Amino acid sequence: MVALLGAFLYACEAKVNVSGGTEVKTTTESEGQKPSAESAKYYNSGVDKARTGDSQGAIADYKEAIRISPNFPLAYNNSGAEKAKLKDYKGAIADLDEAIRLTPEDGDPYYTRGLAKSQLNDLQGAKADLEKAAELFNKSGLTEKANAATAIIEKIEKLPK
Q1: Which residues, other chains included, contact 92 with Cβ-Cβ below 8 Å and sequence gap of 6+?
Q2: Residues 146, 138: contact at Cβ < 8 Å?
Q3: 2-15+35-158 in CATH: which number?
Q4: pLDDT per position as a tens digit, 36-69
Q5: CA 132, CA 16: separation in Å to the nearest integer?
Q6: Residues near 29 by Cβ (< 8 Å), separated by ≥ 6?
Q7: Using an 8 Å Cβ cutoff, are 96 and 109 in contact?
């Protein structure tokens, strides 16, 4: 599992900063959901804290963004990534499950959840999530991300059973 940790930490660095207050563009807009300006403020603060290495502060801000706008998948996704950085893999998976529930066509939470599952030795679950992530990335034209997911699947397949 240690070999996958570098890829995992790289994935956790992929944060998206939301700007524009109520003009926030998120994947939930197609469902008529949009985070409030206040929620976006906490989300952006969380992104800033994550960039400076303050994972605990970032998680607190994402939690507040979610409290204000419970259907904010980016906040769940980033909270899950930060929890995983702190090795709270079960907490990360819970947040990522919610991000997936809200945006099942987004490959990012599947990717990060797959990496978190690999750290818990759930290699079948990790592989399934990474395969789904690769499929969704390919469908969205995100070839580089799809290739990264596929490379990790190949590493998992080479691990001793």
Answers
A1: 80, 81, 83, 84, 112, 113, 116
A2: yes
A3: 1.25.40.10
A4: 999 999 999 999 999 999 999 999 999 999 999 9
A5: 21
A6: none
A7: yes
